[in-house]
Amino acid sequence: MIVALDGTVLLVAQPSLQHALAASPAQIQWTSTGYLVAVAALLLVAGRLGDRYGHVRLLCVGLSGFGATSAGIALAPSTGWVIGLRAAQGVFGALLQPTTLAVLRLAYPERELRRAVAVRTGAIAVAAGSGPVLGGVLVDHLGWRAVFWVNVPITLAVVVLALALRLPVPERADPQRLDLTGAALLASTLALLVHALAAVPARGWAAPPTMLELAAAAVLAAVLAVSERHAEHPIVPPAVRRSVPVTASMTLLLLATAGLFGSLFTATFHLQSVLHLDPLATGLRVLPLTVLMVLGSPLASAALGRWGPRPTAVTGTLLVALGVAGLSQLARHSAAGLTGGVFAVLGAGFAAVMVTATGTVVGAAPPEYAGAIGGLKQTATNIGPTLGIAVATSAGAAASAGTTLLLLAAVALLGLLPAALLPRNPKDREIWTSIRARTDSLPPSTSRISRTTRRARPTSTASSQSPRS
Q1: How many DSSP H helices and E strands does the chain contain?
Q2: What digits encode the pLDDT tens for the residues 105-114?
Q3: Which of 212, 261, 393, 396 is least enclosed, having the fewest CB within 10 Å?
Q4: 371 neighbors 51 (Cβ within 8 angstroms)
Q5: Is 4 strand, coil or helix?
């Protein structure tokens, strides 16, 4: 909630910040881009650090740093300080985001975990939806610095709560050392990719800097793949990398967030610039999206438990695509009720996708890999919006808003492919089988007899001499 709120209130505060510090448009853009690049580049690395050093510990470090950098930005004397501190804030934001999912994984059994993930999804929707309103009130009455001061007491309060947590310590078959080469290559690849996508609205896809950065990211990704194959402790464990449900869920989240945020960018621009609605009226049109995300999250959790991941994800993906396609008719049918209904469909579908994809892979994660999977999930949901807005702006330059939204609906519809790869039955053991391949760990719910059997299992000479996979 803190991260979602911080991102939305900043959008409202940026004009006042620019005026107060006499900043250029490029500098203001970097107050967002610097944070985005830092957080996206380090999410997976942060998840692996949590697996090694403890998720509550890393959560407290991330929260404390996020609050401290917020206070620093509120006191910043110049735009350069704001940009630097926003990048540092992105580092701490990357530390705290994957740990929230890992903490839930360690704290709750599977049935309750689905509900906790639903609460988390609804809370993020509330924060993102209320951000512009809260930001407007703070900026109007207290100035732009107030939107950063508000983070300080909240982060301190959550640190106190986090320190009271007593979570089970997962069994580790190895010291979980971090592959520094892989971490550096991964962070560089993601940083280049996110920066290239974030710059597409200003530069375009065919601009030489964009092409150069995308090519460099592809080369680094290839080097990373080779490095990971030979690393003793790869940054993405083989058990996670080879899991079909994990790969499918991450791809689904990437496509769904790209479709949602690209369509929101296009639709709000159309509502204000073409239909000439003021920001408040536009916000009220979009409000059903937030409401249905909040209300739809517990319903999605119930559907996930009753019908399983695949039917719930396929239904949610179809609703997202239908909602985006419905927004393409804004030019013909712009009545408030109809627009609100379309946004409601979009919100319900996105809630189903988020709860299903998150609950499926996090619930199935072996405890010692909870951070890695949390980092993967957060990486997908951070890159997806950047990709969606890049697609929207490039398509919008040569087409109408309706055509752009239909293109984004097609992007969301591609999510049916990974959704179809998720397990069908809520008790399908395929999740455990695939994600636990090549690892000896047992889930916390494994019975005492099973653990005793594992400890008492005789070990042959050949197996005792073979390297642990």
Answers
A1: 20, 0
A2: 888 877 788 8
A3: 212
A4: yes
A5: helix
Q: What is the pLDDT of residue 442?
A: 38
CA separation for the pair 250, 245 (Å, rounded)? 9
User: Is the distance from CB of 369 to CB of 174 less than 8 angstroms?
Assistant: no
- Radius of gyration, alpha carbons of the chain: 22
Are the CB atoms for 449 and 260 separated by under 8 Å? no
pTM here?
0.77
Cβ-proximal residues to 385 (8 Å cutoff; 6+ apart), any chain: 257, 258, 260, 261, 262
Q: What is the largest CA-CA distance in the chain?
A: 77
Distance CA 7, CA 279 (A): 17
- Rounded CA separation 379/37 (Å): 11
SS3 content of the chain, % helix, strand, coil (to 5): 80, 0, 20
204 contact partners, CB below 8 Å, separation of at least 6: 210, 394, 397
Residue type, 359: G
Mean pLDDT of 7-13: 75
Q: Please give the Cα distance from 404 to 401 (Å, whole number).
A: 5
Residue 194's alpha-carbon distances to 6, 185, 236, 276, 373, in angstroms, are 19, 14, 19, 32, 20
What six digits make up the tokens of 86? 């926003």
| Contact status, residue 154 vs residue 13, Cβ threshold 8 Å | no
pLDDT beyond 90 at 153: yes
Query: What pLDDT is recorded for position 441?
Result: 42
**pLDDT tens across 404-420, in order?**
888 999 999 999 999 99
Q: What is the mean pLDDT of residues 38-49?
A: 86
Interatomic CA distance for residues 356 and 301, integer angstroms: 7
Is residue 376 classed as helix, strand or coil in its secondary structure?
helix
CB 38 within 8 A of CB 164: no
